[in-house]
């Protein structure tokens, strides 16, 4: 069974990544209200589950392909990374083309068709070239391209980590991230420029994973009172900012005299928390919330496994498989409803059905030899 695979990994990270995957699926469905709005505040917060997914993916990569293979030749570790990168590149291009062709052939008049599809009269070779060069992205698995790009670049990161030049790697990551405002002058959308900014999270996670044991040992060597003060400060500040952000995000639920000022505040803050560029405020808030999330999942790990492990562990361990499956399910679910939001009870049942189908696919290992995991 897929659940047993977490035994060789850090269970806390698998649980967190499973939670992030559930949040991503619900946010892409956008069937709110559904009773599941609490999972991620309808995806309206200043930080998304996607950042957490990429950071944990980098951390686990740093542990498994970095530190655990430290005694193996660099060529072996690098080849594994490149092989995985090529696999995800092929998968991401194939998905973009599949969704495009299905949309062209059957659903161009359907209101539920995801926006952004190339015009039906555009030559297919242009579409193919756009997909191959990542100048065209389409479908509900567009973040797969980021993962593929980062994996293909990861051998350089791994080499720097192996020769203990982590500070060089992080300096390069920060410098590339800082190029985003200048790159906006290029003839590309901010979405297409996301690899420039999001690599900071992925390779930052890879560095953390590579030195995870050292970080844990350093933390445990700090005085108990110091650790207590730091943890309590992070938890308190995180809870306060999360509740504040939830209030701002749910402004429409309040009377006008409360909701309008909250909405004005949201509009004023949004430019400082854009998803594509990952400005400093968003990165800082993400770091705070992720630290709190790790504390929460690690502290209450046994209870979380007991009550939610049945879905979080398989979703976390098989995250890429889940992500690709969800892309198909969301794509066709939106087409089925023709873009309409179903009533509350149908939103709840529909969301649970999508999650249940993915869980069933994991347990039956549906196309697991073909779909990347």
- Uncertain residue segments: 1-8
Number of helices: 15
Distance between the termini: 14 Å
Secondary structure tally: strands: 0
Order of helices and strands: HHHHHHHHHHHHHHH
Q: For the residues shown, what is the average pLDDT?
A: 94
Secondary-structure content class: mainly alpha
Shape assignment:
globular
Give me the Rg, rounded.
21 Å
**Total domains, how many?**
1
Helix content: 55-70%
Summarize the structure in words.
- By secondary structure, this protein is mainly α.
- It has one domain (2-223, 308-364).
- The protein is 69% helix and 0% strand.
- The chain contains 15 helices and no strands.
What structural keywords apply?
about 375 residues, mainly alpha, about 0% strand
Write the layout of secondary structure elements.
Layout: H1 11-29, H2 49-66, H3 74-106, H4 124-132, H5 144-162, H6 166-178, H7 180-183, H8 194-210, H9 212-221, H10 224-249, H11 256-269, H12 280-299, H13 301-317, H14 319-337, H15 344-364
Helix pairs in contact: 1-2, 1-12, 1-13, 1-14, 2-5, 2-8, 3-5, 5-8, 6-8, 10-12, 14-15
In short:
By secondary structure, the protein is mostly helical. It has helices spanning 11-29, 49-66, 74-106, 124-132, 144-162, 166-178, 180-183, 194-210, 212-221, 224-249, 256-269, 280-299, 301-317, 319-337, 344-364. Helix 1 crosses helix 12, helix 1 (11-29) crosses helix 13 and helix 3 (74-106) runs antiparallel to helix 5.
